[in-house]
């Protein structure tokens, strides 16, 4: 082999490395420019919310939480209707307000939860 081939191979590899470094610098510069442009555009945008953009309370005032007990709507059994109901006949699985709206309380003889470690009853 001739020495000139080694010199040519070295020159092309140095040139290829220089092209990669210059290309990386160009891409990094373009990314920095794009971020700065985006920051400038964001600064110039109005900051006040437009109408309808954010929810507002109703004119009657703020809405408060309500607590109510509900009981499930019972599904008729096959013995009552004489035949099985198909899914489209069931309707929506809704619920209705319970007749007893009092807060649920633990039974006085109950220990609370299963496995609580307490003695349970009295």
Automatic annotation (TrEMBL):
<feature type="compositionally biased region" description="Gly residues">
    <location>
        <begin position="109"/>
        <end position="122"/>
    </location>
</feature>
<dbReference type="Pfam" id="PF20087">
    <property type="entry name" value="DUF6479"/>
</dbReference>
<keyword id="KW-1133">Transmembrane helix</keyword>
<protein>
    <submittedName>
        <fullName>DUF6479 family protein</fullName>
    </submittedName>
</protein>
<keyword id="KW-0472">Membrane</keyword>
<feature type="region of interest" description="Disordered">
    <location>
        <begin position="41"/>
        <end position="122"/>
    </location>
</feature>
<feature type="compositionally biased region" description="Basic and acidic residues">
    <location>
        <begin position="64"/>
        <end position="87"/>
    </location>
</feature>
<feature type="transmembrane region" description="Helical">
    <location>
        <begin position="12"/>
        <end position="35"/>
    </location>
</feature>
<keyword id="KW-0812">Transmembrane</keyword>
<feature type="compositionally biased region" description="Basic and acidic residues">
    <location>
        <begin position="44"/>
        <end position="53"/>
    </location>
</feature>
<dbReference type="InterPro" id="IPR045513">
    <property type="entry name" value="DUF6479"/>
</dbReference>
